[in-house]
């Protein structure tokens, strides 16, 4: 049998093959077959990546799962990178086009992408620590008011607990991270925090009683300050 024509499987198009067969009696038969080669899988064209359906040869658009990774192709079939808005949610696609999950630094700010790829906002617990992501998705640092309470996020974004020095003043943050006001016992000592959260020193009136707080903030007790006797509870004995 003789076959005339060739097929380049790496180039999409229509190819014609002619099959010629001659039997022992010298009779010849000729059959033509048209072969269609379609584009399939990932192809880079004019600097852009596209994905062609292996059955139809049509460019894919929208979300595409390839192996264990997700990609997004716009209305023209172009593979997207960077931030995209899809279904009202933000996603981040790496330079490879693969959808990112977990922490990502974009510009000078940090963001968090959930397991489904959607950008997280609000409170986030990651690696056993709490973070706060603003409505823009950017990780918050410094003071934050949330739900009527004040919190402090360190430079790493981690929510602070315990004692904090900020702007030259001391504050106390509960285990929940919320800023404490009023009396607080830390270790074996008592301290008093103003409505602003700042630790108080010197004489204070709490309720109907007077107390004295050392420069360290610790409450004085069972002693005499400025000629005033303080009891075991720290209150001035009148």
From TrEMBL:
Name of the protein this chain belongs to: DUF5011 domain-containing protein
Cell wall-binding repeats by residue range: 60-79, 80-99, 100-119, 120-139, 140-159, 160-179, 180-199, 200-219
Gene3D superfamilies found in the cross-reference section: Cholin Binding, Immunoglobulins, Multimodular pneumococcal cell wall endolysin, domain 3
Keywords: Repeat
Positions of the Pesticidal crystal protein Cry22Aa Ig-like domain: 2-37
InterPro entries listed in its UniProt record: Cell_wall/Cho-bd_repeat, Cry22Aa_Ig-like, Ig-like_fold
Protein source organism: Mesobacillus selenatarsenatis
Highest taxon of the lineage: Bacteria
């Amino acid at each position: 049998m003789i076959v005339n024509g060739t097929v380049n499987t790496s180039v999409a198009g229509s190819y014609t093959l002619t099959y010629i067969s001659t039997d022992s009696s010298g009779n010849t038969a000729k059959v033509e077959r048209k072969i269609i080669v379609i584009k399939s899988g990932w192809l880079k064209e004019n600097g852009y990546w596209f994905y062609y359906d292996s059955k139809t040869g049509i460019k894919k658009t929208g979300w595409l799962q390839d192996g264990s990774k997700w990609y997004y192709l716009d209305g023209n079939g172009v593979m997207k990178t960077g931030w995209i808005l899809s279904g009202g949610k933000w996603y981040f696609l790496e330079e490879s086009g693969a959808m990112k999950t977990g922490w990502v630094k974009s510009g000078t700010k940090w963001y968090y992408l959930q397991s489904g790829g959607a950008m997280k906002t609000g409170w986030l617990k990651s690696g056993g620590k709490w973070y706060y992501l603003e409505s823009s998705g950017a990780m918050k640092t410094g003071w934050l008011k949330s739900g009527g309470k004040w919190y402090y996020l360190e430079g790493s974004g981690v929510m602070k607990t315990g004692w904090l020095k900020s702007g030259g003043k001391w504050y106390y943050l509960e285990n929940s991270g919320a800023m404490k006001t009023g009396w607080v016992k830390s270790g074996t000592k008592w301290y008093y925090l103003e409505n602003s959260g700042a630790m108080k020193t010197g004489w204070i009136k709490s309720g109907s009683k007077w107390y004295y707080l050392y420069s360290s903030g610790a409450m004085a007790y069972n002693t005499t300050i400025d000629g005033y006797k303080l009891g075991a509870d720290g209150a001035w004995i009148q």
